[in-house]
Amino acid sequence: MANHSQFGFQDASSPIMEELVEFHDHALMVALAICSLVLYLLTLMLMEKLSSNTVDAQEVELIWTILPAIVLILLALPSLQILYMMDEIDEPDLTLKAIGHQWYWSYEYTDLKDLTFDSYMIPTAELPPGHFRLLEVDHRVVVPMESPIRIIVTADDVLHSWAVPSLGVKTDAIPGRLNQTSFITARPGIFYGQCSEICGANHSYMPIVVESTPLAHFESWSTLLSS
Question: What is the domain range of residue 199?
Fold first, then answer.
């Protein structure tokens, strides 16, 4: 999760988030190169006297026409690749349905029998020591580690958004519509998120907690909850 005074992204916990962080760094390097070149040319123009070469230069015009096209290609190709990776859902090991309410989440494990629960934020007065205020819930979403997970997101009343930054997941929950996305947790851990769509007075009080565990632990947990 994020720390105080943190300027960068949260630590990536899924392959998609790793790709997003790498693309962010790539785009920043391209922007840095453009800014450095423009600053150099501006400094050069201010310090040098104008000549006919700066007024009529076919080579320069050709360069500043072709160069932006090359820059756009360098940004577009990896961006399109990540978009296709995020959109592709191929034979998931587990399907999870998340339903947004005012102001809590309901979860259904559609591949498992009778495994549904509501997830409410734990009030500050009842929060156990060592847990995070406004982020901890009474029932976490438990998923098996290193397994493709498909999540179907919808809402029961108003617009919500199911978002977990460290997993690179953010999907709108729209009443009467099913949106889907997928993720793979690369390591065991607990990952925190929140509703990212302004959905009413208690919008900031419907957190999301995803717990990634080994497959054996997930099977034990699901069996216990289903019984």
Answer: 94-226
Spatial distance between the Cα atoms of 156 and 139, rounded to a whole number of angstroms? 19
* pTM of the model as a whole: 0.83
Provide the 3-class DSSP secondary structure of residue 111: coil
Number of structural domains the chain divides into = 2
Which CATH number goes with the domain that contains 83? 1.10.287.90
| pLDDT, tens digit, 9 for 90 and up, residues 159-212 | 999 999 999 999 999 999 999 999 999 999 999 999 998 888 888 899 999 999
Full DSSP string of 130-180: TSPTTT-BSS-EEEETTS-EEEEEEESSS-EEEEEGGGTEEEEE-BT--EE
Phi, psi of 57, rounded to the nearest 5 degrees: -140, 100
Residues 6+ apart with CB under 8 A from 207: 121, 134, 135, 136, 137, 192, 193, 194, 195
Domain termination residue (choose one: 56, 87, 118): 87
- CB burial class (10 A; 0-12, 13-18, 19+) of residue 188? middle
What does the alpha-carbon distance between residue 11 and residue 163 come to, in Å, rounded to a whole number?
Answer: 15
Q: Please tell me the chain's helix, strand, coil percentages from 3-state DSSP, rounded to the nearest 5.
A: 40, 25, 35
